[in-house]
Each structure stands twice: as C-alpha cells, then as structure tokens.
Amino acid sequence: MVTIKDIAKAAGVSYSTVSKALRDSPLVKPPTKKKIVNIANELGYQPNVAARSLVSKKSDTVGVVWPTVERAAHAALITKINDQLENHGYTTLLSINKVEAAINTFNRLQVDAILMFNDQGQDGPDTPLPSNVPILSYGIAKNPLYPTVDVNRRDAIKLAVHTLVDIGHKNIAFIGDMSQRDQLQDEKVSGFTEGMKERFQEATADVLIPASGLELYDGYLAMKKFLQAGKTTTAVVSGSYDLTRGVIRALNEYNLSIPKDVSIISYDNIPQTNTFEVPISLVGVPNDVITSTITDALLNMINKKQVPQSIVLEPEIKLNESCLALE
Amino acid sequence: MVTIKDIAKAAGVSYSTVSKALRDSPLVKPPTKKKIVNIANELGYQPNVAARSLVSKKSDTVGVVWPTVERAAHAALITKINDQLENHGYTTLLSINKVEAAINTFNRLQVDAILMFNDQGQDGPDTPLPSNVPILSYGIAKNPLYPTVDVNRRDAIKLAVHTLVDIGHKNIAFIGDMSQRDQLQDEKVSGFTEGMKERFQEATADVLIPASGLELYDGYLAMKKFLQAGKTTTAVVSGSYDLTRGVIRALNEYNLSIPKDVSIISYDNIPQTNTFEVPISLVGVPNDVITSTITDALLNMINKKQVPQSIVLEPEIKLNESCLALE
DNA sequence: ATACCAGTTAACAACGTTGTTTTTAGTAAT
DNA sequence: ATTACTAAAAACAACGTTGTTAACTGGTAT
C-alpha cells in the first residue's frame, strides 16, 4: 500500500506538502505540485479513506438500506440515484441486511447520509433507530419515523379516473395486484374507489379486476378471465406497466382495439419507451422527478445539516392515443 | 459522537484500558471491565471503523460488485452469501457502479475482499484491474482474469438430455432464451446440441424452441407457438425455472399432460418450492452449494491470504415425476 | 528493609491523512 | 547592512483506535 509518505520520500518533500499538492491547494507552487502528482500517479497512489475520514469526519459516501433485493421494484430508482450522487462526488453503497443491522453498519462506516427503502413499511421499526447520520426514507409519508419522500399513488389513480370520466367514460375498470396486503397497492385501489365516488353521486359498484401479482402474465390472466366472463368495460385503469402489457395482450386476443373498444391509462413511473403500437396514456410521478427529489434531499441533509420535511410528490398525467373521448 | 475517551473519563480510567476492556482482553480485571462495558452501553458507544481499520488494516467488510441491479438473477445468491458472511463476522456492501469504479471504491474503503458478479462478461475489463484487495469472480471460468467460481451450465443441460435419452426419449426439445448473445445462455444451447450428438450418432436436427427472454410469459409464448405450429415432442428441457412455468401453462392450455404426453426437466438452482401439481425434475448446481463455495473461497482469500484456484461446480440432477420412461 | 515478583493500569507510539503553525529562503525597503 | 515582509515548504497536532512498553500496586521471598 503506497502512502503519502512514500510519495514524499520519492519527491524529496515533506508529506504534508504532498497532501496539499494532491488536494490542489494554492499553498504549493505549481511546478512542485505537478511533480508530486506525477509521482503519485506513477506509484498508483490511492488515498486511504480510513485515515481521511478519521480526520475529516466525512466519507463522501451514502448508504442505501435495501432489505429486499428480490423485489426488483426499485432497481431503476437506485441506479439513477447512484448516478446522480456520483455526479456530486458521493459514492453509493447498498446493504441488503435487515434495516436495523444495515443502519448500524452505515453508522460505523460513518456514511454521510442514509437512504432507506421502506418497502411497504412491512418490517420497519416502530421507533426511530439511534443514528448519528441523517436518514431519509422512501415510502409512505403517513406517520413517518424519518423524513420521507412519498409518491401519491392514490391521487395518481384518481387523476386517471377523473380524466376518463371527463372525456365521457362511465364504465371504468381497475386492474391491480390485490393478491396480498400491500399498502402501496391498496392506495391505488382506494384511489380508484374514491375517484369514482367523487364523480358519480350514486354509489356504483366498482369494477375491480384482481390480478395475483404485478407481472405481465398476471395482467394477461386477469384480463382474460374478465373478458371470458363476458364482462365489458370502455376503459381500464391499470396499476402497473407490466400489468398493462398483459392487458394489451389479452385485448388483442379478443380482437378488441385500443382505444376504439377500450381506453387505457396505466400507472407508471418509467419514462415511456414506446414499445406499443398505440402509445399508452400514463399517470404517475416520473422516475427522474422522484430521483432528483431524493438526491436533493440527501445533499441538503448532508450540507445544510438540516432535517428536511417529508415530501409528497404529486402525479402527472400524460395523455396519449390510448384514450378515446366518448361523446 | 461518543468516543473511547469519553468512556475513559466517565469511568476514571485511561483510554487504552477502555479499548482493552471493550475488546474483552484478559489484561483488564473483570470488575473494571464490567463497569466500562456498562458505561459504554449507557453512552451508546459505537466504535469508529475509520480509526479501527486505520490501525488494524482490516475492515471486516466484503465488497460485492454488482453492476446490473436490474437483472434480479443473482438476488437469491447475494442474499444468502450476505447471511453466510455475516455469520463469520463480515459485513457485505454492494456497489452498483460499473466494475472499474466499484473496485476502486472498495479499494479505497479497504474492504477485505471483493466478490465480482461477472454478468456474462459483457463489460468486464480485459486486463486485471489494479487492486490491493483479493478479488473473486462469479461467472465464466474460461480464461478468467480472476479466480472464478463457475457453474457448468453446459454439462447441466447435457445431463438432462442424457437422462431423457436413457429412459427412452428420442424426440427432445430445448427451450431457452435465444434472444440475445449471452454466454450463459449460449452454454446451455450448446450443452443441448452436444448432448444430443453424443447419444445419436446420425446428426438429428436439433429441436430448439426460441424464447425471447427468461420470463414466464416468454416461455408460455414460445411453447404455444411451437404447439400451434403443430410440432410435437415427448420431452422438453427448459433453460430456466420461469420458462418452465410458462411451458407448463402452455401445455395445460393444449390439454397435454405432464409427464404422460410430455416429460420436463428444468434447469434451476433454486431449491424447489413445489408449487406445481407435478413435481418437476431439475438439473443444476443447488444454490447453497454455489453460495457456500463462494463464501468459503472468500474467507480463504482473506485469512490464508492465498489466491484460490478457479472452481467449476458440476451439476446434479433431481429426478421427479415430471419425467416418464418411454419403453 | 531490599529486591523481586505478578497483576493491573497508565502512558506512549503508531496507522495515514488534513489543517494550523512554525521555519526557511528570498526579496524589497529602510 | 539590517530589518521587514512574503512565498513556499517543513514541522506539528489532531482524529479514534490498537498493540507495546512503562509505571505503579501490593505481596512474598531474601
């Protein structure tokens, strides 16, 4: 392991001069600086984080608590956040340990901030864990233990419903994952129910198409079952992008055209890579809005040393050809 | 941040005594030790890794290079490896940066070992990266730059083919992801081709069912297309668990029974959670064999400071009711 | 009493780095 | 030629920890 002192010896200067030279301090003359930098490169010098963070009390590192790798749901988010933080000089580290252990680890490592993916609050602690490091949570902002970035899924679905009603639809169905108690999915269902209630005074029975998962095949199966039962609808609000893909397959099989026979609005955060014949309308908070919000919040926590408020992101709608006005 | 010195002051002893007490050294009298430990707990003391690893040159941490979070393929592996390392007192950290940056980070962090998930060697460097830390790779052991743990996918499929031939099958098909150049998948295809060639002298045209991915729906679609075209087979070797699920769906739709009409052997590493009516035969290296091998290799690298050889794991077959003998 | 133990604890040095202070050398002003 | 000043570099202290060495204890043997 080559240290700052080896460089000093090789360059014939004191080691503190080397330190300054490598940090590009104006306290060392350009020629000397250049010589030192060259020697450092030549020797393949790598600064020792332990030593550095011992004195600076910083590690330029952000820890991400991610207890459920299996659920690839947030993969896209993490990738982007990782990139954005990198642009600001921070390194991202993931821990797939359970929340408590992960936070502990990150505290020991003297990470500068912690981002916690709070998967449906399933196994979250009910009292804030002791931490010297500021923690930001991504999940549900209802009675959060930590400042939280939340996506208003309920309003997103509601927005979809309202939009469809406003262009003349009356018979609207919602397809979503209802296989398990999952707060995130429940929010969507109740968004649908409330959205309908707000527009139709008399209580209409909600048309719910229950899928048993969030995969393409789940959507395909659920929609097919719906159609097989002879049920019909003029518009479908879908709880996820993959489900939507399944729905489209099923509709195709039944020779139902989009949007002539059925209009579709899909919940989604992914920037649309239009792989469909008919561009699909989307509601949701765009992924880069989410990631920028998170990144900014993290950087604020680190630099301003101030605890940010919880933030609820409101959805946008992007209308496309998949929606047909009915009047 | 409470340090060892704060404890020393509170306990009225020197700080070196505190250090020894907390590390349970025999050099400090039990009563003193107890008192110190109590105070430490009370103050919520957390050792500073930076300081510790500065002097000990260890961090009790293993870094995992995982550039493609999106591909959830290895999630199960990582989870298990994480647990096993934890049992040995090591913390696992993941980096989703690209290989070079990740290795750099881990070097700076003075991680004790690095595990690299070498996704189909797609963007791997072609010359070993400079690293002070031993690196183990999981992927393909063919001309590896680092000691590598490899799974013999080719022989796994071959084993499946041979087994089917030996129980009387002649018309055998292989379904796999042939959508993209992926070394891992290619290995399986050629395992099939070779396996057939070894048993049938005359060159029979291989029956390949090309799927356009590794998801359930891809298998379903590919198999359905195969059947729709009026083709038949008495046995299917499937390249992945999810594909197999899709195949089964398709067979069900065509009222073909397993194993009466079609026998199935599936490639898989996952310990079988029997969700099927008919238990499926499996080939592959069980996941816990893979993870234990990796964990052991990592620990060896750390403790013995010796570079291990590359290891190729040989597959096992687990015959179940999904295979019917034909004579 | 003096010297010599063992058992405890205190003091010290070191790890590699950064920020501050002191020294050195070179130049300008008296 | 002495002083005053400035730029550059060296020396020093500190960060929190661990391993080593030195300094105390009280007791036992001389």
List the domain count of chain A as a whole number: 3
Most extensive interface between two protein chains, with residue counts: A-B, 41 and 42 residues
Largest sheet of chain A: 6 strands, parallel
- At the fourth level of CATH, the homologous superfamily of the largest domain in chain A is Response regulator
For the secondary structure, the number of strands of chain A is 12
CATH architecture of the largest domain in chain A: 3-Layer(aba) Sandwich
Protein name (chains A, B): LacI family transcriptional regulator
GO molecular function (chains A, B): DNA-binding transcription factor activity; transcription cis-regulatory region binding
Keywords (chains A, B): DNA-binding, Transcription, Transcription regulation
Domain HTH lacI-type (chains A, B): 2-56
Descriptive account of the structure:
The structure is a homodimer of 327-residue chains. In chain A, helix 9 packs across helix 10 (241-253). The first copy, chain A, has helices spanning 4-11, 15-22, 30-43, 49-56, 75-87, 99-108, 153-166, 183-199, 216-228, 241-253, 287-303; strands at 61-65, 91-95, 113-117, 135-139, 148-151, 172-177, 207-211, 235-238, 263-267, 281-284, 311-313, 316-318. The first copy, chain A, has a six-stranded parallel beta sheet with strand order 2-1-3-4-5-11, sandwiched between helices. In chain A, strands 7-6-8-9-10-12 form a six-stranded mixed beta sheet, sandwiched between helices. The longest helix of chain A is centred in the middle third of the chain and has 17 residues, at 183-199. Chain A has 327 residues and is an alpha/beta fold. In chain A, helix 5 links the parallel strand 1 and strand 2. The mean pLDDT of chain A is 87. The interface between A and B is large, with 41 and 42 residues. Chain A binds a DNA duplex (30 and 30 nucleotides) through helix 2 and helix 4.
